[in-house]
Amino acid sequence: MDTVARWARDSGADRLRLSVMPDNERAKTLYRHTDFHQADELGDLLPDGVSREQVMLRPL
After folding, report:
1. Tell me, what's the pLDDT at 23?
2. Residue 14 contacts residue 44 (beta carbons within 8 Å)
3. Whole-angstrom distance between the N-terminal and C-terminal Cα of the chain?
4. C-beta separation of 30 from 23 below 8 A
5. Three-state SS for 6?
6. Per residue in 17-60, pLDDT tens?
7. Cα(29)–Cα(5) distance, rounded to whole angstroms?
8. Contact present, 56 and 17 (Cβ < 8 Å)
């Protein structure tokens, strides 16, 4: 993840953004350990028409 962050920063990005399924605790834990935090923005609507992906951000 740090290699991707360096590449993104060197390319002019100021953050990394990803979406994760709301029930995927293992992925969210991994992302939190690599400096991502849950964003205030809404993710894409899931096929059930009610739930949404969770957006996570990592400032660079």
Report:
1. 95
2. no
3. 12
4. no
5. helix
6. 999 999 999 999 999 999 999 999 999 999 999 999 999 999 99
7. 18
8. yes
Q: Which residue is associated with the tokens 């899931």?
A: 46
DSSP state of 43: E
**Token couple for 22:** 């709301």
**Residue 58 is which amino acid?**
R
Question: Radius of gyration over alpha carbons of the chain, in Å?
Answer: 12
What's the pLDDT score for residue 28? 97
Question: What pLDDT shows up at residue 39?
Answer: 97
Distance (Å, whole) CA 20 – CA 31: 10
- Contact (CB, 8 A) for 54 and 28: yes
Q: What is the DSSP letter of 46?
A: P
